[in-house]
Amino acid sequence: MLYYLTAVVFGMVGLTYAAVPLYRTFCQATGYGGTVQRKETVEEKIARHSESGTVTEREIVVQFNADVADGMQWKFTPTQREVRVKPGESVLAFYTAENKSSASITGISTYNVTPMKAGVYFNKIQCFCYEEQRLLPGEKIDVPVLFYIDPEFETDPRMDGINNLILSYTFFKVSEETNSSVPVQETS
Q: What is residue 65's three-state secondary structure?
């Protein structure tokens, strides 16, 4: 009985550590919550559309939203409120994160795209999401997101009438560190 209970405890601890990557994989596989699905790499999609000479005329407005979880003492904002983009064009946008506390804070962000059914066409080439960002007290950084909207967006009848997308990020606190716990290296 003791071995069984010990195995259950270790199994639950293991599942706790695996929860975030498993959830991310589930969301990317199913498109749940507006998360972008992955069937082919972004580079493969760009190359395929470049070779076929796909030209789009439709202009999409991508609006940017930024939030922080309750209790996280960061100011997190998009540097621009929106961009206008044609499907197939790459776009570089920035968000600004600032630690307003007197202690170092490590955060991690998640994102989603709304309307959710358009998430399958939203492709991030480079992003700060799902990567830990550590900010010292008062530190302010700009974090980039490079994306493009798949040209197939224009030909999908389910996307008729959708001319606005919202890219939303939320930062969550991962850990709180104090200056005394950060090792200091002395130089001679």
A: strand
